[in-house]
Write a structure and sequence with these properties.
flat, 8 helices, 38% helix, 13% strand, single chain, 4-stranded parallel beta sheet, alpha/beta, two-stranded antiparallel ribbon, 172 residues
């Protein structure tokens, strides 16, 4: 192996890469774990807890995330300013309607280590509610990460043959 290849490999290890994650129909917790690993740099062989080797993560389609079960109405986000009577509780549906990026941001924030480096890591997280990304971010992207879960097909995406061959519970 030539020294040029070693130096290129070393540069690629230390350089900050830009990863793209599509959050359409994905649970926020799964997206947050993928983001957390990349923001901390745990996927790199040079990772150390005291060194800042994390990469940039771009998450698009945060408006189209999916919760399982009835979590849109049952999951509650709380905040308190410290003043008497300032305790606020908001359901996930209300928070998502107000700010489509907030649920993913809070999920990632909760999965990062609770130290002073968390703010620096959060600066490298770029959230977009739709699939429209700025041109300067598109030029920096180096890799698109696969979605953690398969997106279920809608009824219109099935062919007539697939619908007829599907087992029926009740015969009309």
């Amino acid at each position: 192996m030539s020294s040029f290849t070693k130096s290129a490999q070393q540069w690629a290890t230390f350089a900050r890469s830009w990863y793209l994650i599509d959050a359409r129909m994905q649970p926020p917790g799964k997206i947050a774990t993928m983001c957390s690993v990349r923001l901390q740099g745990k996927h790199k062989p040079i990772y150390h807890a005291l060194s800042d080797v994390g990469d940039h993560v771009v998450v698009m389609n945060t408006r189209h995330i999916a919760f399982s079960g009835n979590k849109w109405e049952q999951k509650v986000y709380s905040s308190h300013t410290g003043y008497p009577g300032s305790f606020k509780q908001v359901t996930a549906a209300q928070l998502h309607h107000k700010d489509p990026k907030a649920i993913v941001k809070l999920a990632v924030y909760g999965m990062l280590p609770k130290n002073l480096a968390r703010r620096t890591m959060m600066r490298r997280l770029h959230l977009f509610p739709d699939d429209v990304l700025p041109e300067e971010i598109l030029t920096n992207l180096s890799e698109e990460l696969p979605q953690p879960r398969d997106i279920p097909r809608t009824l219109s995406e099935y062919t007539q043959e697939e619908m007829e061959s599907f087992p029926r519970l009740f015969t009309p």
